[in-house]
Amino acid sequence: MDTIGVYLFTGFMDSGKTTLIKETLVENGFEIESKNLIVVCEDGDEEYDEEKLKNMNTSVVFVENKEDFTKDFMDKCVREYRPDNIFIEYNGTWEVADFAEEVLPESCELVQVLTTVDATTFDNYLTNMRTMMMEQLFLSDVVIFNRSDENTPKIKFRTAVKTNNRRAQIVYERKDGTIDETPEPLPYDMSKDFLEITDMDYGVWFIDAQENPKKYDGKTVKFLALVYNPDKMKKGVFVPGRFAMTCCIEDVQFIGFKAKYDKSKEIPHKSWIWVTAEMKTEFAMEYKGKGPVLYVKEIEKAEKPEDELVYFN
Questions:
Q1: 86, 91, 73: which is closest to 24 by C-alpha?
Q2: pLDDT for 110-126, tens place per residue?
Q3: pTM score, two decimals?
């Protein structure tokens, strides 16, 4: 028997998982070419029309309790329904981290993880259910912010996702179901060759440069940085960066760029400096591929700022 492709749909209740599964079945032609199984682990407002799905070569099974959602259960489903593809509407309150190891039998392979997010409630979930929200986002291949509109803070949402999962593709879907492909505005003028990055803009710049390094090729930037330069660091290389907070103190992490400077050993570890550097895209082991590398032009000593953190909000 060929390996069965599994598509995992995560997100909190009423975030749009059921609608997305229906759209995926129709738009990707799964109902025509394949025999499909939908495993529903959560009862939301949107329901499946099982009679209609039968005509689309698709069956539906339900799981109420997490302790029942096991490899034995999935093996039984595979034997009974013999599907080519399995779509799992996961319960938004269940942990996702060990899903592949604990639930999927050897006959199944996780193809893609898609997470739906209600753009109107995302801020509230970040504030009150941060751990659960971030766990879902961490494993996602695609994050869909539905119910988006012109007031959706795209930069803030994108940054919240990308600080936890840089590989995730982000999609903004309007209330009418159309995709919003409007470019996300940057807080600085990319038409200029010199960019002075403020503390307020640092997080946005970091994420955008990591995602689109070629866009910054040849740009000269200046920013305030904390130095990461321990004795074990390779000569001629150091990392200027900042401690950044996404939404709360538990999210604080150091984010910085690889920088090349022939006098790097003269810069004390954990000192504060103003960095002026040219950005180039090149292969770096630290990035496990190509990424932005700073070629330092000038270093100036700086005073520790009153607030050492930068923010993504």
A1: 86
A2: 999 999 999 999 988 88
A3: 0.73
